[in-house]
Redoxin domain-containing protein (Dactylosporangium aurantiacum), 267 residues
Amino acid sequence: MPLSTGAAYRFNRFGTALLIDDMTFARNAPGPGDRMPAFDLVTVDGGRFRDTDLGPLPVLMVFGSRTCPVTESAGPVLRRLHAEFGDRVRFVLVNTREAHPGDVFGQPATFADKHRHAVQLREHHAFGFEVAVDDIDGRLHRAMSPKPNSAYLIDSTGIIRYRAHWANDEAALRTALTDVTAGRVPARGRSRAMAGPLMRAVGHLPGIVRYAGRRVERDVWLAAPPLALLGRLSRLFNRLPADRRGPAALALLGVVVSTAGVLFAAL
């Protein structure tokens, strides 16, 4: 069964196939110029988020979960952008499947579980905007080519005007929001930034492990050893902000590899 369908969407162990799937959008994934698929989601405060009633403002829709390191990194970004644009843009975070389910905080088994996860996600990040809950099999998330923390700017008629692979790409999102709130279609319809967003997220991986359980780290070691190693090394830089620990870990690893190469050549 494909990873993106039905019950397989609610995986219990993160693996290499999921990592590869997270890196690219499907060719037929909705993008700039496309209309949003039909959806009708409940929000944690009892409201609705519907494709047929988006309201008069453009919408920034972001996918995320409590166990996603990139969502962790994106939390402060979204709070800053909401403070800047929240009077002119409707912000909605859609709670998805857990990106890294663990032995302590696992994949939701029912919609009620998923709703509780969404409440925890909102409280954890202190979001002052709407948090909606996708259905248990992630119908909306799957329709968009499921990525753990993608973001979309949608106009009030339901047309996508901008797509970001990762919602912690603050500069690109701010530029797109500035364009949309000025009545312009964003000059760049997509953000494909990869290395920067992932390195900013690496320093949040140890926190996800502490929250969701040790199985998360074991799964990442099996699926993506380089990311697991960087996550482990990032613990050496706890005095730095979490977003800077991954780049610091990468720099340290580069020094170690370079030094080892020099020593080996001298033998």
